[in-house]
Amino acid sequence: MHPASTAIRSFFLRGPAGQLEALLNEGSPEATHAALICHPHPVYGGTLHNKVVFHVMKALNSLGMPALRFNFRGAGLSQGEHDKGVGELEDVRTALDWLDQEFHLPILFAGFSFGAAVGLRVACPDPRVDALVSLGTPISPVDDRSYDYEFLKTCGKPKVACAKCANPSKLG
Question: Which listed CATH number (3.40.50.1820, 3.40.50.720, 2.30.33.40, 1.10.287.70) goes with 8-170?
């Protein structure tokens, strides 16, 4: 295990709908992977500062990985408007492109709730992504959204999912 740098970079990615607010927790110079972590639904208050997203970043960064978190369009200081999970696919691609250009390392994707639902669709077919972590994956929302994960049947990448992570009080 290689200790990660404690340096944090705050910057903006050039996204398709404008600037995307981003935070990078620097990793170890010996890192073997970089990590992308996506946050829960922005309409319901989800941002890159969400406590689950923060703790996932800390865990991956403690393994030496540089860990990138960003706000989807319309969240935090990111420009644009929420696009019901459609335009957000491009936001994830933007973050993956940046990680690849910056580090040239295989990428581990992690998403929480909405971030998992959107990010899995992009990360699964992307050859730069080696493994997937899905936390609090939404299955049956209370509104008109629907989630279809049929594409995961043909995704041969290692996957870890935690259904109870949507409600941390159920962990234990």
Answer: 3.40.50.1820
